[in-house]
Write a structure and sequence with these properties.
Blueprint: E1 5-11, H1 18-26, E2 33-39, H2 46-56, E3 60-64, H3 73-83, E4 88-91, E5 97-98, H4 102-113, E6 117-125, E7 139-143, H5 148-152, E8 163-166, H6 183-193, E9 198-209, H7 215-220, H8 224-243, H9 249-258, H10 267-275, H11 279-309
Parallel strand pairs: 1-2, 1-4, 2-3, 6-9
Antiparallel strand pairs: 4-8, 5-9, 6-8, 7-9
Length: 310
């Protein structure tokens, strides 16, 4: 329980939010941590705003992302991983609020159950600050490579700031710095395919602020840079699954159905190429994509319309 935690926080023009986030870190009941604040080239007064806190508490350290790491969240996090001295790694965003028992509970789960990571729950908020509640540790299930399909399809959502990892999970794995969206989906799925094991708990230990300037908000606003990144993440995940012998028909169907949202990127063709299928199997999926899938969608929409009229 005395092992140090390295908190890695990328920041970019969040001077109006970041101090509240840092105070919630300072209020952690587990105190043996370092917080590496990596500035991604922001132009606001973030450094001025947090300077008094940096002087008061030397567990906080402020860095500018060097040029040999690409601009963006993955580059900042990779720089933080290379600086980290903790036994555990956790990523926090610069505009959220952290439960005071976040580190204490997560480390207790990992050490008690002899696993590599702890996945907890988050709760969104907007203007009104969340009501922070305490509750005993409640384990939902263990998480292993057998759950890879649920992780890839996000039935189990390993969001970027909802996991405390043992540092060894990142010994050979880094965030892909060419991705500006879905980078944690791609990175974390790699970790699971390396057979690291974890525990999911039902405790809400993180409160994420919802606003239009967030990565997720921009994706759902049809940001083309983020859509391109999601498409590239899909291909990287497929290549890794194929390499590890974990690419199932269920997962292929999931990706191919998803490709309908990315027609302008010709994603279906890229999926078939990345999957390295035999001619017969490739033909089967082409028939599914061009004939069966459109028919299924038509029947689904028709049924939905008929149900509304009743």
């Amino acid at each position: 329980m005395n092992s140090k935690v390295t908190i890695i926080m990328a920041t970019y023009n969040r001077c109006h939010f970041i101090l509240e986030t840092l105070h919630s870190i300072q209020n952690q009941t587990f105190e043996n941590w370092e917080c590496l604040i990596i500035d991604d080239g922001g132009t606001d007064k973030t450094q001025d705003v947090i300077s008094p806190l940096l002087a008061q508490d030397n567990r906080f350290r402020f860095y500018k992302r060097p040029d040999d790491y690409k601009k963006g969240l993955p580059g900042c996090r990779n720089y933080g991983l290379d600086l980290a001295t903790g036994h555990y790694i956790i990523f926090f965003d610069d505009d959220d609020i952290i439960h005071p028992d976040n580190l204490k509970i997560s480390i207790e789960v990992v050490t008690t159950n002899n696993v590599d990571f702890c996945h907890y729950q988050k709760m969104p908020f907007e203007k009104q600050k969340p009501i922070i509640k305490n509750s005993p540790i409640s384990i939902i299930k263990s998480l292993t490579i057998k759950d890879i399909e649920k992780i890839i399809t996000q039935k189990i959502g390993l969001a970027s700031c909802t996991v405390l990892w043992k540092k060894q999970c990142f010994d050979t794995i880094r965030f892909n710095e060419n991705l500006l969206y879905a980078e944690e989906w791609e990175c974390y799925s790699q970790i699971i395919t390396e057979n690291f094991k974890g525990i999911i708990i039902s405790n809400i230990l993180y409160y994420n602020r919802k606003h239009r300037n967030s990565n997720t908000g921009e994706f759902y606003s049809n940001n083309p840079i983020h859509k391109t990144s999601k498409k590239n993440a899909i291909i990287l995940i497929i290549e890794n699954l194929k390499l590890k012998g974990l690419l199932t028909d269920n997962l292929l169907r999931y990706f191919i159905q998803m490709s309908l949202q990315f027609k302008e990127y010709n994603l279906f063709v890229s999926i078939i190429d990345a999957s390295k299928l035999s001619f017969a199997t490739s033909l089967k999926w082409k028939i599914f994509y061009r004939l069966l899938l459109p028919l299924q969608l038509f029947l689904y929409r028709l049924k939905k319309q008929l149900t509304k009229k009743q």
